[in-house]
Amino acid sequence: MTFSIDVAFIIKAIIILLIFAITLLIATYSTYAERKVAAFIQDRIGPNRAGPFGLLQPIADAVKMFFKEDFIPSQANKWLFILGPCLSMLTALMTSAVIPFGDSIKYEAAPGKVWDVAVQAIDVNIGVLYVFGVVSLGVYGIMVGGWASNNKFSLLGAIRAASQNISYEISMGLAIVAILMMTGSLSIRHIVEQQHGGNWNIFYQPLGFIIFITCAFAECNRTPFDLPECETELIGGYHTEYSSMKLGFYLFAEYINMFVSSAMIASLYFGGYNYPGMDWVQAKLVSSMGEITGHNLATLVGTLVFFGKALFFVFFYMWVRWTLPRFR
Amino acid sequence: MDFSTFINNLTPAASFFYVLSFLTILCGLMVVLSKNPIHSVLFLIGTFFCLSGHYVLLNAQFLAAVNIIVYAGAIMVLFLFVIMFLNLRQEDEEAKTNIVKIAATIVGGTLGVIMVGVLRKSQFGTYNPYEFDSQVGMVENLGSILYNDYLLPFELASVLFLIAMIGAVMLGRREAGDRHF
């Protein structure tokens, strides 16, 4: 009995580590993809010096960030100045805990006893509220950092970030209420399971989806709504005074937020790990490879589909950024 | 009872409770004792976090999440917003004269004495552990209780919020002749 619990624990730990690592990896390569997409849209070449196709560019950037001088302004509030980027990073990474990345992994605990482990860090019955709570805390990193810099432009950026996040949170919540009423559950896993078989919420709630994605852009401070850091008015916004890896943390947290919100959009409106014909694929795999291996492979396919959907929305974020002018 | 045996005999939930309570009281004290108002606000946010932890220990997850969304996520952001604009760095010392300090001590001490006096004599309700429903704080149960047993107070409270909202919009509305900044 203790043995089987330990195996479940180890599988869960591996899943959590993988989710963490993949989130960071995707955020790293989003910076590369952002430049490549921008280059493609503006008919340029983009980064192509570091490694084949410039694939080592994010690593070169990270190394450069680490070796820059870490400067703290003399009149700044030192501890809050350090706390700001830490809070941004922390809240960005906390959100992915409740997102279901796949169905479940089966393994044989004892002969004839098959256990299920969900491909998700934790399945809480208030998943959507948890995400909202963490998202509403995300603004503290920006506000604390902007105020602690003791710079007028930073403060203005922080204030703009706060007012923008608070206002768009409300409409985001109202857009999601429709989905909650259709599903009757606050657990994201239930919402995803309920969309099984092509019943994606996008077909039932197209207006809700448009409102939700607009608010997601505003919450991530992405370009049509990049008031907190617009260069033309505020120099750099809340991170004007930041240098070295602290600045890197702020920029990196934005890309993590982008990926996590894309994953949220995919699971709330586009069926999560469901895809057309998944029952057929699962039946085929189970009949040809046996109950356990077949099920696990089908889960893997579903997870890959989920990442495909999420990455499409990451691309959509970039597409909009390099197509639309700023909102003012 | 010896202190080390007390620590060893704690259940996991009880040890969580003691750590959380310690953090709550520490954050609460720091709200009052910090010189910098921004630090006070940040410690107040920490206090709300600890209170949400207590709600989770009581199996009231919905309340915990809503506490964080509403208090830590919205109201405290507005607090921080206002205090950042005030720029209270140097000129706040003159407000704290000795009379103010003495008056604050008396008022706070009286309040503390009253609370201790009330809590000493109060009878805490007991519950039957065999009939107690541990799922009472879950979203579904909370919803059915709110919409069955307490429908009228719930609706009255929402009407009150609506009135407050309309009032805020009326106050903040631009008049016909106002300039646009």
Descriptors:
heterodimer, A: 328 residues, mainly alpha, globular, B: 181 residues, 0% strand, extended
List the helices and strands and how they pair.
The complex is a heterodimer of chains A (328) and B (181).
Chain A: H1 2-41, H2 57-67, H3 78-94, E1 104-110, E2 113-118, H4 127-148, H5 152-183, H6 188-194, H7 201-204, H8 206-219, H9 231-234, H10 244-269, H11 278-289, H12 291-321
Chain B: H1 3-8, H2 12-33, H3 37-57, H4 61-86, H5 98-121, H6 139-148, H7 151-172
What would your notes on this structure say?
The complex is a heterodimer of chains A (328) and B (181). Chain A is mostly helical. Chain A has one domain (2-321). Helices cover 67% and strands 4% of the residues of chain A. Chain A has twelve helices and two strands. A two-stranded antiparallel ribbon of chain A has the order 1-2. In chain A, a hairpin with a 2-residue loop joins β1 (104-110) and β2 (113-118). In chain A, α1 (2-41) packs across α10, α3 (78-94) packs antiparallel against α4 and α4 packs antiparallel against α5 (152-183). The N and C termini of chain A lie far apart (61 Å). Chain B is mostly helical and 181 residues long. Chain B has a single domain, classed as Four Helix Bundle (Hemerythrin (Met), subunit A), CATH 1.20.120.1200. Chain B has helices spanning 3-8, 12-33, 37-57, 61-86, 98-121, 139-148, 151-172. Chain B is extended and about 75 Å long. Chain B starts with a helix and ends in a 9-residue tail after the last helix. At the A-B interface, α4 and α5 of A face α3 and α4 of B.
